[in-house]
Amino acid sequence: MTTVSEAPAVAPDVTSRKLTYVKAFNEGLAQVMREDENVFVAGEDVAGYGGVFRMFDNLLDEFGPRRMIDTPISEAALVGLGVGAAARGLRPVVDLMFMDFIGVCLDQIVNQAAKMKYMFGGSVSVPLTITTASGAGLGAAAQHSQSLEAWLAHVPGLKVVMPCDAYTAKGLTVSAIRDNNPVVVMLNKVLLGSKSEVPEQIYGIPLGQAHTARHGSDVTVIALGRMVGEALAAAEELAAEGIEVEVIDPRTVQPLDTETMIASVRRTNRVLVVHEAVTFGGLGGEIAAQIQDAAFDYLDAPVLRIGAPFSPVPFSPVLEKAYVPDQARIVQGCRRLLERS
Amino acid sequence: MAQRASKKSADPAANQASAQVVRDLHERMVRIRLFETEAGKLMEAGKLPGFLHLYVGQEAVAAGVMAALRDDDQITSTHRGHGHAVAKGVSFKHMYSELYGRVTGACLGRGGSMHINDVSLGMLGANGIVGAGIPIAVGAAFAAQYRGEDNIAVTFFGDGATNIGAFHEAANMAAILHLPVLFICENNGYAEFTPQSKHMLITDVADRAASYGMPSVIVDGMDAVAVHQATVEAVVRARAGEGPMFIEAKTYRYYDHQGVKGLRHPYRSDAEVEEWKARDAIDLLEASALADGTATRAELDDTWRRTRDEIAEAIAYAEASPLPDTADLLLNVYSG
Ligand SMILES: Cc1ncc(C[n+]2csc(CCOP(=O)(O)OP(=O)(O)O)c2C)c(N)n1
């Protein structure tokens, strides 16, 4: 049997049509499952119900209960099942529904999945994919709305991807499953119904490569996940005033492609990092530090960060709206950077 | 093996729940039923943000247990927590305001449906993380034991929650420390859309208590009096320092896991829902109260009417209440 990890990670030029983010994820997953018998899915209500976010719709019909497994509410055992099965050569896709639930199975993710290859002297790999939905915006409150990528990206041995649209949702999911390491795929709840062009055939997007979503010469905005769309909208708004914003989507936050970002900063000399997660201790700090290390002499202003305030995600829609960064705050941030001569 | 609560006790006096208890149980159940039904309507009308996990159908459990507790007894609840909060006495105004995200809400608009609490009434919160309230109740019971106080703690959870590690760790901890805590499993047969038979191989969740040396009892969760009597016995034990107890109430939720309806997947049959509704806890209690002369129809109707009025007033209050001020976004991140 050929292993999927050897398959080329290129996006072939084929007919594309618009698909929702969640459907694109679903299609990518189904295609890798067709490609590799070793891929199976386990999680709460993923099979019979098709997942509470419809991520797994129709997969039970096609792949049956051997490969689509409804599990008890036992996240530690669920991730552990994935780790053990992966160590024995399967390619588990384990779903954690809401990202917040990693709190109850963090040991299996951080101390087991992430470290096994290293601790075993490289004699075993853990091709485990963890899928989950992150982000605020649904009034789901403090225990169902977090963006915890910084927790995970801090751990050597884990990869973390954050698709910003349907196209990347499919391509990153395919690559995550084909990857021989544990990868966490952070889908964004607010994006689930959003549409973009998605090729019909299977394609992977290389992990660890940033994408320049828009070219511009005046400011670089580095945006994670859902913030890519907000940044592109902000860029359009500023373009009307003759300000050209470059938008970079890291796509993978671990490993992080800082080279692409630094190259951009050397051209624009101004940089804003924006993420939905809390600013304090967030990835914005890491990105800013790396840029200062590598491109200090090119900066016309200190690196600016935009993220959530230092608070749990509030329930009340008025508070939640004020909490999550948006187009307006990105526009403001760019203006502030440009005001500095 | 778990004991099944026998329908009839050897002592005939014990079989006759006092009229006062019956009226208390009835009132608590009516309050929950109407609170929930109206909340469901508000959600369907698009007036409430977020998620709403309704409790309708399970009223006998919250009412039966809470009527056996004192105000200073502590409870922890679940994502399906409105019924517990209402039965513990949390005000309708605070609850509806919270569902609306108003600053007058039980969590100042920060928590929403899944996090309603009222510490002054011993309501240590609903919880968005399945199983998370269980160890917290054990901690509350520990505090009582530590201080030599005789209040107890009660934790509510579903059948599904007993598959999570927190349940097992907390049960063992409570047993080994002889803590005054009651484990109330509301077995409604489903964890979200997964039937019990597909998430555990045992029929009686109460059997799980045995492996921790914890006594257990199984009760009809549609019979408020039965739930109440079982709880009273467990409370007496716990207050006397005889340790934790596990009560499994077999019950049912009428609405969908979340929201009112929206079943895109037929995970249970309409016939099954109707079968349970035919044994509705409020109908059963009313029928027996009328049959044995404990209450008149007029008295029961009066409870419904008064509660309806109170609810209408609470909803109006919530709708007229101010939204939280975004300038206070960091409120209570740290406090005290
Ligand atoms: C740790 C965790 N895992 C999963 C969920 C998602 N979830 C919310 S309710 C629920 C089912 C709970 O079933 P049960 O404990 O039987 O309670 P019921 O809903 O039947 O009242 C699940 C899986 C969660 N909130 N927390």
Automatic annotation (TrEMBL), chain A:
Its cofactor is thiamine diphosphate. It comes from the Bacteria. Coiled coil: none annotated. Residues 19-194 form the Transketolase-like pyrimidine-binding domain. The keyword Nucleotide-binding does not apply. SUPFAM superfamilies: Thiamin diphosphate-binding fold (THDP-binding), TK C-terminal domain-like. Keywords: Oxidoreductase, Pyruvate, Thiamine pyrophosphate. GO terms for molecular function: magnesium ion binding; oxidoreductase activity. It holds the Pfam family Transketolase_C. NCBIfam families: PRK09212.1. This is Pyruvate/2-oxoglutarate/acetoin dehydrogenase E1 component. The lineage of its organism: Bacteria, Bacillati, Actinomycetota, Actinomycetes, Kitasatosporales.
TrEMBL record, chain B:
It holds the Pfam family E1_dh. PANTHER family: PYRUVATE DEHYDROGENASE E1 COMPONENT SUBUNIT ALPHA, PYRUVATE DEHYDROGENASE E1 COMPONENT, ALPHA SUBUNIT BACTERIAL AND ORGANELLAR. Gene3D superfamilies: 3.40.50.970. It comes from the Bacteria. GO terms for molecular function: magnesium ion binding; pyruvate dehydrogenase (acetyl-transferring) activity. The lineage of its organism: Bacteria, Bacillati, Actinomycetota, Actinomycetes, Kitasatosporales. One of its GO terms (biological process) is pyruvate decarboxylation to acetyl-CoA. Residues 27-325 form the Dehydrogenase E1 component domain. CDD domains: TPP_E1_PDC_ADC_BCADC. This is TPP-dependent pyruvate/acetoin dehydrogenase alpha subunit. Keywords: Oxidoreductase, Pyruvate, Thiamine pyrophosphate. Its cofactor is thiamine diphosphate.
